[in-house]
Amino acid sequence: MRIALFSLFTIFFMSVTPALSATCGNGPGGYEAWKQSFIANSSSYGLKERVVKKALQGLTYNKKVVRLDRNQKSFKLSFKQFYAKRVNNAMIKRGQKLGKTYARIFNGIERKYGVPAPVILAIWGLETNYGSFSGNMSVLRSLATLAYDCRRSKFFTNELVNALMIVQRRDMTPAEMKGAWAGEIGQTQFLASSYMKYAVDWDRNGKRDLVRSIPDVLASTANYLQKHGWRRGQPWGPGTANYRVLKKWNKASVYVQTISVMAEKIGS
Predict the structure, then answer these.
(1) Does 11 have pLDDT greater than 50?
(2) How confident is the model at residue 1 (pLDDT cuts 50, 70, 90)?
(3) DSSP code at position 25
């Protein structure tokens, strides 16, 4: 998932001023100096230095993350190849079963956001196989490495700042913040910036928890789609307005087509 944030809140807290940071790098050599510079300039991002220092303490440069960032192949597949690799009948049946298990939650979510259960289930299934595996890598270590790396430094510095905001407001601890290699968090793999803007506390326990709380996961996913223009009661196949909304979730055409087809099958 890749998103753009427009609110004054996020513009203030996510803006990256190159002058405030040490130079990016393409290897581990300058990483520690970059990290210390980032910590020293915490307040310029709206962060508390003590929070950032504690959260980033001991985090080393991750060569594996950089290698994965340079070698993304899944979206080079055709739709047929991608669908066959990522989806099977068991996933569809499990999605249908989960739709029944959480029917009351899905009904409430659709009433509020207008997004039907099959679409949310398709995203949930495709992202993490319904929460079976959300990733086990340190989100903060991954994001710090990618923020330092020159290839997409500005983008990932924004994500690092937002991840630290999540820690600062006590939604999650650094230790709890485990995810995929690019820093995606939770059962539908929100980027930290999306987490900050779209995550909701559906179970009303005082925290927006997209790792452990299934109600929060499902409602937050629907909130994201609704805020990007989802049209209540309308179809979501290719050529529709809702299909264009799904493209806001993921820019890869094979991914969006897979969500659309999965949702149709789950809902049939």
Answers:
(1) no
(2) low
(3) B
pTM tops 0.90: no
CB 118 within 8 A of CB 99: yes
Alpha-carbon distance of 249 to 247, in angstroms, equals: 5
The 10s digit of each residue's pLDDT in 59-87 is 999 999 999 998 876 667 899 999 999 99
Element (H, E) at 193: helix 192-198
Tokens of 32: 């520690």
Please give the angle made by the CA atoms of 99, 102 and 106, to the nearest 5 degrees.
Answer: 80
Please say if 127 is a catalytic residue: yes
67 burial (CB, 10 Å; 0-12 / 13-18 / 19+) is exposed
Q: Which pair of tokens denotes residue 146?
A: 């990618």
Distance CA 101, CA 222 (A): 18
Residues forming a β-bridge with 178:
138
Tell me which of 110, 127, 159, 184 is the catalytic residue.
127
3-state secondary structure 108-151: HHHHHHCCCHHHHHHHHHHHHCCCCCCCCEEHHHHHHHHHHECC
Query: What tokens were used for 49?
Result: 């230095």
* DSSP secondary structure code for residue 207 in this structure: S
Domain boundaries, the chain: 1-268
Q: Which helix (H) or strand (E) holds 179?
A: strand 178-179
- Domain 1-268 annotated CATH 1.10.230.10: no
Res 191: pLDDT: 96
d(CA 114, CA 123): 16
User: Residue 8 has which token pair?
Assistant: 């004054």
Query: Mind listing the pLDDT tens digit for each residue in 149-201?
Result: 999 999 999 999 999 999 999 999 999 999 999 999 999 999 999 999 999 99
